[in-house]
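Before a colleague's protein record goes any further, I have to sign it off. I want your independent view on whether this chain really folds as the tokens say. The record follows directly below this note.
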Amino acid sequence: MKVMKAFFGRLADAAIQAAPIGSLLGLILFYITVLAAELLRVELSAVIWLGVLVALHIVSMTMMIFHRLAVGFHRYDQDIVGRNFVGLSRKCRLFSHALELHFNRRINASLDEFRLLGDEYGDSLTDSEKAIVSFYTARCYDQLRYYPNALICYERAAEQGFDNSVLPFLLARCTGANGDTEEAVRLYNEVLGDEKSPFRNLVYNDIGRMYLDRNEPDEALKWYSRSIAKRQSLAEAYGGAAIAQVMLGEINEGERLYREALLNHIKDPNGFTEYYRRILDSVIHEKETARRLKKLGENE
């Protein structure tokens, strides 16, 4: 029963995936048929032309559905998963369900299933499948902020041959979250050195955030300023620089950068504003406390 359900589920997904291209292909074939009929001076009734259109559409859709089933596909991260875990076996169904849970933000449940997959099928997985399971296990730990566990799994994925440009970037980010800033910067520089990496424009902001988390606003500001100068992820760079300036006591400059971040449509403006105001209130409170203590000392 489960196998049949999985089969028809995959068939339905394949039909949905194939529908746009299949319909377009059917229309193109119909136009070619019409043109050929005109050139050959073949006269057909409207009913026959309608039948030809429907038949070509069915044929093209069928071809595309079988093509999708043959090459294999996943609803999420097709560029990462590729042709791994394609089939109706329990192993493939378990992986698909774990991935579904992951992208529906049920991270704990997803982690449990990825770990179960590794435990039950570890010996029968291909090297590529082992690397993918290690990668997604790491992603779960990462999102749950269990950074030491995440780093172990990321490194294991690399050793197993996981080959996607996202891994060096996530390794650098996770290393920084573990507190090893020197090694993290080295890894980030490797990402910068890869001209094909789509994550290069995120590096400066990532390093800036790493130093903010370590309460080193002066160092963070250097990296955010580089991102602003290169106009990379500009809104987030303005936002990070605003926080850094406020932490350094430069409230007026922080306010200017805060407005720039909002004007450039920073992600989650409400969350950013709440964080910014919390930092601002803390700094103002510290300044006011210091002023009062100083005044009290002068009066004594």
User: Anything to note?
Assistant: Confidence is low (pLDDT under 50) at residues 1-7. The two ends are 85 Å apart (CA to CA). DSSP finds 14 helices and no strands in the chain. Residues 242 and 255 are 7 Å apart (CA to CA).
